[in-house]
Every structure is written in structure tokens, then in C-alpha cells.
Amino acid sequence: MASSRASSRKEHLVETALRLFNEHGYHATGIDTILKEAGVAKMTLYNHFKSKDDLVVAVLKRREEWFAEQYRQKTLGWEKKPAGRLQVWLEIYEEWFRSADFNGCMFQMGAAEYSDPKGPVFRAIRAHKERTMKQFATLGAEMGLKDPISFGRQLMVILEGAIQGAKLFGPEPAIETMREMVRHLLPYRA
């Protein structure tokens, strides 16, 4: 029972930190603010995380899990062709851009605030982006594209730019441009 309660407190801390980091940024959100919002003692935080960086990494992992879960839910029980799976990814981004809590990419924000390539936060961000790019390259290979690695990189750049566009100019122009740019990638099949 105690481990269940501890796990619940840890989850609550991560969810609270995720919300606050998304709203205010990592450096602008202090540990005391997180603790106050979560309603837990500092000792509870340090029982689960060695440092704020460890909490940030846990938040980023949670965010990555959220995207994976969105994809899993949208593809559950069907075998779409690779192009259909690409459309699912675009729909996930579109829905995210239109959501009330959209405030840009927490990974992009983290890369700007934690720029030391040897630091744990930057390494976690880079690993996430590399996994995402590899996933897109695999999708490109399944679609029979001539250069799936280049496709993965280009799709990644398009989506990263669309995120910034949605944050700066609103979702609809970003979505329209993202879809148009992805259409330009697809004719290059083997």
C-alpha cells in the first residue's frame, strides 16, 4: 500500500510539473512552485528525483509516452498502409495544435533552456528526437520511398517548424502548410 501511495505521489508530481513547465517554461518554474501546486513536501520530491533535472527528464518521458499513446489509440485494431499511418501522425499533430493546452513543444523549449549537450535534459531531448526521426524513416521505408532516412529527417523538420508556426501564428496556417509540405515529400517513391 505504501509503494502505491508513493507511486501516486510521484505521478502527481510529474503531472503537476508537466503542466507548469508547459505553461511557464523550465527555468521559470521553481521547485517550490511545483511543490506548492502539487501539495507535497520537498522530501517527497527528493525521495523520487535526485534533482530538478531528473524531474524534467521524467516530464519529457511522460510527454513522449503521451504521443505514443495517442498513436496507439488511433491505430488500435486496424492495419493501415504506411501512408495511412503517416496521416495518423499528422492528425495527432493537428489535434495537439488545436488543443487548449498547446503551448509549443516541451522538447524544443527544453533544448533552448538546457543547451549543454552533455547534460541529462539535453541528452533526453536528443534521444527523443532521434527516436522520432528513426520512426519516420522506418515509415518512409515501409512506404517504399527512395531515401527513407532523408524522408525521416525532412518530415522531422517539417513537423518541428509546424510546431513553431502553430505557436506563433495559430494552428490553421501551420496545419495547412504542414500538410502541403508533406504532400511534396510523397512523390519521391522508389
From TrEMBL:
Keyword flag Cytoplasm: no
- Can the keyword Transport be found in this entry's annotation? no
GO MF annotations, alphabetized? DNA binding
Q: Which UniProt keywords apply?
A: DNA-binding, Transcription, Transcription regulation
Residues in the DNA-binding region annotation? 30-49
Please state what the protein is called.
Answer: TetR/AcrR family transcriptional regulator
What Pfam family is a match, any one? TetR_N
Q: Where is the HTH tetR-type domain?
A: 7-67
The record lists the lineage as: Bacteria, Pseudomonadati, Pseudomonadota, Alphaproteobacteria, Emcibacterales
